[in-house]
DNA sequence: ACGCCCTTGTGAACGCGTTCACAAAATCGT
DNA sequence: ACGATTTTGTGAACGCGTTCACAAGGGCGT
């Protein structure tokens, strides 16, 4: 199986936009967008190691996908690879970053500063990947006023004000399920248009707002499903586990990624 | 909207759970499995509210999918709905739980007890949904020996021993990326066959092991992609004050959902 | 009993995404 | 200069999953 994150999230738009906005980039398939992040990480890792060019094949293994898929994905963004050689690591990396809109150093609001919120805030890949936590909100008096890397934790009452002033359009919800919808409504009212939701709830939002959710219980349950089936089988026929991609990665790569 | 999962599954033959007399749930599409968790949550919520039966239509809205999809999903597990009436809430709920293997109260190992690990451990939906944290592992001397709901935090050196003794087959990796592969290898060696990985790394595993990953940076980047495109299209209208219609739809939906 | 109305279950069409397989570039060695 | 070699980019086939639309089934009122 695959493995890697899946998710399909829903982008909430109802009416699609057949008409290209003011666009330069043509439509990139959703599945491809979801993988660009993986490629980007692999590329960053390669760059740190001083690699200048990389073939679709080795980049693919590093990212845990197969090479045909990788090439097709890159072709969607009008990639510039060189036949017989491969891709220029830093060039491709920049290209992907631009495509994902990461060159704008986007401001993100973090709502909920409990364990999960703090874990997210401390997540290294945050700042290093084009995101900046511009606001932190909670309701706990113990937390309010504390600072994290220059950002002060504000009370939920000031949510709208803070979000508006910092021109934040992306928010991460890391609050208990019971208050998630309320928080969401306030964020939307304050102008947030993209939400990453960690609370186990289906959020209702207007159609111009995008919600992606990360559902821990669901992930575990999916694992559980496969696991419970595995236990009824003999060792000789379990292909139930890893994907082809992963099998390849086992051979070629453990340790390569960092 | 949503899309989720990729994952190619292929469950080999269909010997089912021996304990089930009539169960012939074989070949459940991966996409369906991923949604069962959502249905289960919605059903639980309905049950708490005392609802006895529910139509595919309202269950679908509660879970955030459309009703045709829901019905097809349920049909894959040989569901027992009643035409003209709907589904029996508690019956369906039990059926899904069995299908996901949640009736076995599965033991899970949590590796890494930093902020993320603690957030996961404190996650309510954990115990309440068929999972039991049977072991917690870390390397920080400050943490080792502390207890959480009867489980003592053990040092990583004892990982194999602890995992083997508790017969754990599912583990959650919540450690820094740099050590994730090593932890993974040890888990596999100790007999773990299903892993939920929060570290931003591609894990190499043998083919009989299933890995799912939750990639925070990737999620944000996907949001960023859509968000950056939206801003081009909406330059002219600032939704800092969403229209009344939009707000109302928020209100209306939120009432329906939980 | 009977017919109306409601809701499920599903065959069929459709669309998206993955995989295959190969022709088109580009480099390198001789 | 040129052929051998490598690796990209992509048209085409395929397969999975979603959506549509409707027949089949079941309850309920009369």
Total helices of chain A: the number is 9
Helical proportion of chain A? 25-40%
* Largest sheet entry of chain A: 7 strands, mixed
Terminal-residue CA separation of chain A: 23 Å
Based on secondary structure, the structural category of chain A is alpha/beta
Describe the structure.
Two copies of one chain form a homodimer. In chain A, 40% of the residues lie in helices and 16% in strands. By secondary structure, chain A is an alpha/beta fold. In chain A, the strands form two sheets. Chain A has a seven-stranded mixed β-sheet, with helices on one face. A three-stranded antiparallel β-sheet of chain A has the order 1-3-2. In chain A, a hairpin with a 3-residue loop joins strand 2 and strand 3. In chain A, helix 1 (30-48) packs across helix 2, helix 1 crosses helix 3 (67-76) and helix 1 packs across helix 4 (89-100). The radius of gyration of chain A is 21 Å and the shape is globular. Mean pLDDT of chain A is 83; it is low at 1-24 and 234-258. Chains A and B meet through helix 1, helix 5, helix 7, strand 9 and helix 8 of A and helix 1, helix 5, helix 8, strand 9 and strand 10 of B. The structure holds a DNA duplex (30 and 30 nucleotides).
Keywords:
alpha/beta; Arc Repressor Mutant, subunit A; DNA-binding; seven-stranded mixed β-sheet; 258 residues; homodimer; 10 strands; Rossmann fold; disordered C terminus; 2 domains
């Amino acid at each position: 199986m695959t493995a890697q994150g899946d998710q399909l999230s829903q982008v909430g738009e109802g009416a699609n936009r057949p008409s290209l906005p003011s666009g330069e980039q043509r439509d990139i398939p959703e599945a491809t967008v979801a993988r660009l992040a993986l490629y980007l990480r692999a590329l960053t890792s390669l760059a740190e190691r001083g690699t200048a060019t990389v073939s679709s094949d080795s980049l693919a293994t590093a990212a845990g996908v197969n090479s045909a898929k990788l090439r097709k994905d890159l072709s969607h963004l009008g990639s510039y690879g060189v036949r017989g050689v491969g891709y220029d690591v830093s060039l491709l990396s920049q290209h992907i970053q631009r495509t994902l809109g990461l060159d704008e150093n986007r401001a993100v609001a973090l709502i909920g500063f409990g364990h999960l919120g703090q874990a997210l805030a401390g997540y290294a890949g945050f700042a290093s990947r084009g995101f900046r936590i511009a606001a932190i909100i909670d309701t706990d008096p113990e937390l309010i006023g504390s600072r994290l890397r220059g950002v002060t934790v504000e009370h939920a009452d000031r949510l709208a004000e803070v979000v508006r002033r910092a021109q934040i359009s992306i928010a991460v919800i890391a609050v208990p399920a019971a208050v998630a919808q309320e928080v969401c409504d306030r964020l939307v009212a304050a102008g947030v248009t993209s939400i990453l939701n960690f609370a186990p709830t289906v959020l209702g939002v207007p159609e111009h707002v995008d919600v992606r959710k990360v559902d821990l219980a669901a992930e575990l349950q999916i694992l559980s499903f496969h696991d419970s089936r595995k236990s009824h089988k003999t060792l000789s026929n379990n292909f139930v586990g890893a994907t082809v991609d992963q099998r390849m990665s086992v051979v070629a790569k453990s340790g390569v990624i960092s």
